[in-house]
Design brief:
The structure is a single chain. The chain is α/β, with parallel strands linked by helices and 121 residues long. It has one domain (2-109): Rossmann fold (3-Layer(aba) Sandwich). 37% of the residues lie in helices and 17% in strands. It has helices spanning 9-13, 21-29, 58-71, 83-88, 92-102; strands at residues 2-7, 43-49, 78-81, 106-109. The protein is globular. The structure holds iron/sulfur cluster. Iron/sulfur cluster is lined by residues 8-10, 50, 52-55, 85, 88-89, 91.
Length: 121
């Protein structure tokens, strides 16, 4: 299973989720929304951010990532909306709707279930 994660740009810019470690560790342990891949091959092939509020660049950003993956002979099987987006984003429903319409693969809401990030004002 080839996984792409969509993250919150504000969370990334503020470096409050260093190294995307929570998503990485959750997949390694098959915890949170990655539990569904227990006993299955699964890898994160890319992390793309939403492009900043209100998240309208998520589809173009995903498109660029898909091109990069195609050049590596890789594809995407599933897009996970990061727990950062799910927990803090006021535009989450719009982002999910856009992804479901345009991503062309399954969309899962969430990644890890550790303490979610907060955007600092
Ligand atoms: S709050 Fe939502 S739209 Fe704004 S940067 Fe974060 S994920 Fe993107």
């Amino acid at each position: 299973m080839k996984i792409v994660i969509v993250s919150c740009k504000k969370v990334r810019e503020q470096n409050i989720c260093p190294g995307d470690a929570k998503c990485m560790v959750a997949l390694m342990r098959r915890e949170g929304e990655f539990e569904r891949y227990k006993d299955k091959d699964a890898a994160i092939v890319g992390i793309v951010d939403c492009g900043d509020c209100p998240g309208t660049r998520v589809i173009p950003n995903l498109g660029v990532l898909k091109l990069q993956l195609a050049s590596l002979n890789e594809t995407v099987d599933v897009v996970h909306l990061g727990t950062c987006v799910v927990s803090v984003c006021p535009y989450k429903d719009d982002i999910v709707e856009a992804l479901k319409k345009k991503a062309g693969v399954e969309v899962v809401e969430g990644t890890h279930k550790y303490l979610p990030e907060k955007i600092f004002p």
